[in-house]
Write a structure and sequence with these properties.
Elements (H helix, E strand, L loop, with lengths): L10 H5 L3 E5 L5 E5 L7 H8 L15 E3 L3 E3 L1 E7 L2 H6 L5 H12 L4 E8 L2 E10 L2 H7 L13 H6 L4 E4 L2 H13 L1 H6 L2 E5 L7 H10 L7 E5 L8 E6 L4 E5 H8 L6 H4 L11 E5 L18 E5 L2 H12 L3 E5 L5 H4 L1 H8 L1 H10 L12 H6 L3 H17 L3
Parallel strand pairs: 6-8, 8-9, 9-13
Antiparallel strand pairs: 1-2, 3-4, 5-14, 5-15, 6-7, 10-11, 11-12, 13-14
Helix pairs in contact: 15-17
C-alpha cells in the first residue's frame, strides 16, 4: 500500500479471493493481486481497511473517552483465577479467562485468534479455539506478522457465534466491517483486543533465534513470553533442550527495533474499537518506566462498551476473573510508551503529508487533543525525525 500504511491484518484477502497475502523481504504479510477484484471490494475496503480508515472511538451517555486511552466504562487490574491460565498467558490472563468463560457458558462457539504454527514454530497462524486446552496452547503474545482476518469470509461460512481476539488494527477493521455488514455483526458478539506496541518483522524473530545460539531449523517450539510474567523468549529443540532471553532483551533490544511503519503512526494502539482491551499492568521502576521482574501476572483491563462491561461482571460473578478498581490516571505509569505514541501520532502523520505520502483517515480518535498534550517542541522534533526517516527510506 502506498505510504506503507498497510497493517497486514488480511481483511482485503479475507473479503475477496482475487487478493492474497504474501511475505515481503522482511517477512511482513502484504496483499497481492491474484486477479480482478469483485465489484464493491474497493468501496468496502475504503470503509474498513485500517490502512485507509482507522475505526473511530465511540463513547456513550454513561462513559467517557480519554485522548490517550480511548472509551471506557470501567478501568481495573485483573487476572485469571485459574492459576494455569494466569501463568501461561502474557500478563494476568484476563483475555484468556474471558474467552474461556464465553466458551464454557455457550455465549460463543469458538474463538478466532492467532497462535504458534506447530509445523513452523517461528511463524504465527490463525487458530480457532473451542476449549480450555486450545486457549492454553494459544496463550501468550506473538510478536510477529499475522493476518487474522485473511480467512474471514470462509469463517463466516461455518455456523456459530465467534469471539474475535486481535490487535487494535484487526479489531478496528472488523468493527468497521461489522458496521458495513449487519450479517457479520450478528456473528461476532464480542471483540477483544490489547495494547499493542507494534508488529515486528519476521526478521526480528530470526534475530532472537540467532541470539539464542540456535539455527531456525532446530526450533521445535517458540514462545515470545508468558509462562510467567513477563516471561522469557524461549526456543525449544525437539529433544527438549532450550535457550531463553528476558523480555527486556527480546522486546527491548531486538523486536522493538523491527516494528513496521504503520505501527509508528498508529492513532489507536490501545484497542479502542474493542468491547474490552487488556494490557500489562506493569509496576513502575525507579527510572519512571516499568520494571520487568518476574512475578504473578497482572492485567490492565478496560471495558469499553456496555456489552463488554457486562461480560467482565459475568466472568467475575462466575469466579473466572478477579478484578480491582484502577484510577484512569494510573495507566500512564504502567504504559508510558503508549501515551507517547498517541500524542505524537499527529506529528508523524503531518510528516507523511509534508513528504507527499497518503495517510489513513483518523477522525474521531482525539489525535489533535493528544497532540496538544505533547507541546510544540516535542511535536516539531517528532515531525522532523519522521520526515528524515521517510526521505532516507529508513522507516
Amino acid at each position: 500500500m502506498a505510504g506503507q500504511t498497510c497493517a497486514g491484518c488480511g481483511l482485503c484477502a479475507g473479503l475477496d479471493p482475487a487478493i492474497g497475502m504474501q511475505r515481503d523481504a522482511k517477512g511482513w504479510l502484504r496483499p497481492v493481486a491474484l486477479g480482478a477484484a469483485m465489484p464493491g471490494t474497493d468501496r468496502l475496503l475504503a470503509q474498513a481497511c485500517p490502512g485507509a480508515t482507522v475505526a473511530p472511538w465511540e463513547g456513550g451517555e454513561s462513559w467517557a473517552i480519554d485522548p490517550y486511552w480511548g472509551p471506557y466504562v470501567r478501568v481495573m487490574t485483573a487476572h485469571a483465577t485459574d492459576p494455569d491460565v494466569r501463568h501461561m498467558a502474557s500478563s494476568g490472563g484476563a483475555l484468556s479467562a474471558l474467552a474461556l468463560h464465553l466458551l464454557e457458558t455457550g455465549a460463543v462457539d469458538r474463538v478466532l485468534h492467532v497462535g504458534m504454527d506447530a509445523l513452523a514454530p517461528l511463524f504465527t497462524k490463525i487458530v480457532r479455539s473451542t476449549g480450555r486446552d486450545d486457549i492454553l496452547r494459544a496463550a501468550g503474545s506473538r510478536y510477529a506478522p499475522a493476518a487474522p482476518l485473511a480467512e474471514i469470509r470462509a469463517e463466516l461460512e461455518e455456523p456459530g457465534r465467534i469471539l474475535f481476539i486481535g490487535k487494535p488494527c484487526d479489531a478496528g477493521a472488523l468493527r468497521q466491517l461489522m458496521a458495513a455488514d449487519p450479517v457479520v455483526a450478528e456473528r461476532f458478539p464480542y471483540l477483544l483486543s490489547f495494547f499493542c506496541a507494534g508488529t515486528p518483522s519476521q526478521d526480528g524473530t530470526d534475530r532472537i533465534v540467532r541470539t539464542l545460539g540456535m539455527e531456525k531449523a532446530e526450533v521445535a517450539h517458540f514462545r515470545y513470553r508468558g509462562d510467567g510474567w513477563p516471561g522469557f523468549a524461549t526456543a525449544t529443540r525437539a529433544d527438549g533442550s532450550s535457550a531463553r532471553i528476558s523480555y527486556a532483551e527480546s522486546w527491548g533490544d531486538i523486536l522493538s527495533k523491527e516494528v513496521q511503519f504503520r505501527c509508528k503512526i498508529c492513532p489507536d494502539a490501545v484497542g479502542g474499537a474493542a468491547d474490552i482491551a487488556a494490557a500489562d499492568a506493569w509496576y513502575g521502576g525507579e527510572t519512571g518506566y516499568p520494571a520487568f521482574e518476574e512475578m504473578d501476572g497482572r492485567s490492565l483491563l478496560i471495558s469499553r462498551t456496555a456489552r463488554g462491561d457486562a461480560l467482565v461482571k459475568a466472568a467475575e460473578a462466575a469466579g473466572a476473573l478477579a478484578t480491582a478498581p484502577l484510577d484512569l490516571g494510573e495507566i500512564i505509569k504502567m504504559q508510558p510508551s503508549q501515551a507517547r505514541r498517541k500524542r505524537l501520532a499527529a506529528s508523524r502523520m503531518a510528516a507523511m503529508a509534508l513528504t507527499g505520502n497518503p495517510r489513513p483517515v483518523v477522525d474521531g480518535l482525539k489525535v489533535g487533543e493528544a497532540a496538544r498534550l505533547a507541546g510544540l517542541f516535542e511535536n516539531a522534533k517528532s515531525c522532523a525525525g519522521t520526515m528524515r526517516r521517510i526521505l532516507s527510506g529508513k522507516r
